[in-house]
Amino acid sequence: MRILHVADTHLGYSAYHKVASNGLNQREMDVYDAFEQFIDYAIETKPDLILHCGDLFDTVRPTNRAITFVIQQLLRLSEEEIPIIIISGNHETPKLRETGSVFRIFEHIKGVYPVYKGKYEKMEFGDAIIHSIPHCHTGEDLKKALESVEMSERHHNIEMLHVGIMGIKEFRTGDFNEQVIPNGYLKPDFSYIALGHYHKSIEVSKNAYYAGSTEHFSFKEAGEEKGFFEVEINGGVKKKFIPLKVRPMIDMGVIDCSSLSSEEITKKTVSYTHLRAHETRHDLVCRLLLE
Question: Is 275 exposed, middle or buried (0-12, 13-18, 19+ CB in 10 A)?
């Protein structure tokens, strides 16, 4: 069985007031482009299943543009008969249950399985059982969901979570509405645990991995490669990180401005930015710390 594990696409995100040629925010367009690259790869390689581990959208109430874009991309998968499970993350889960979820609009798209009701759900695909736990409304709800997982002895058991992890190493963002669990909940009985929430692609335990985000969303992520995992489960588990072509994000460090005029500061900043852009042969998202 071949699976694509992706997370934290944050569609609808925008920043920095840079306008693209179509009049829209440049960073918003970058985020759409990264997701479309992922969908292109899926259609080209035809995985058995896609797991999206939360924060598909950047907000609880995404714009019409973001919703339209997502539906267009999910319909492309549906037409190719590539199933996708999408669990809700903290960014798109409303704090009040009565608010409702944007994920309801996906329920009528063939092959799209949204999991967003704050409880554990399991689904069977071929020789695998997918144990899906979305972002929950309370820590108690999350604990109940984790403890209600029913393992199957006849299948590969794969778990999906959107959480921070605490233990010997900690994987958390300090984000609003964040939920964090002890690493003891990452049971070794699972063939694979697909994680979302932490934006860096990294191994948490021998069977648990964060795919990371598909674009850069803060300068804490400067210099990180962005992409997703391709996972082969056939007796054992083999995984491969698939990088996406995204705009580099570089933290350029400190410029000593103590003896410079405002005009000299601007000139030096622009010069340094152009130099780094030439080195990468790409437009940059960059930050300079001026002292």
Answer: exposed
Which of 238, 234, 288, 249 minimizes the C-alpha distance to 266?
Answer: 288
Instruction: For residue 181, give Cα distances in angstroms to 18, 168, 198.
Output: 37, 12, 13
Q: What does residue 187 show for φ and ψ, rounded to 5 degrees? A: -75, 135
What pLDDT, in 10s, does the model give residues 84-110? 999 999 999 887 666 789 999 999 999
Nearest to 215 by CA among 24, 27, 5: 27
User: 8-22 in b/e burial notation, b at 16+ Cβ within 10 A?
Assistant: bbbbbbbeeeeeeee
Active site residue 155: no
Prediction pTM value: 0.91
Nearest to 71 by CA among 96, 108, 31: 108
Whole-angstrom Cα distance, residue 239 to residue 73?
24
Cα of first residue to Cα of last residue in the chain, in angstroms, is: 54
Structure tokens at 167: 């233990």
The catalytic position among 5, 10, 52, 91 is 91
CA distances from 263 to 15, 155, 200, 270 (A): 26, 66, 38, 11
Structure tokens at 80: 């190719």
SS3 state at 87: strand
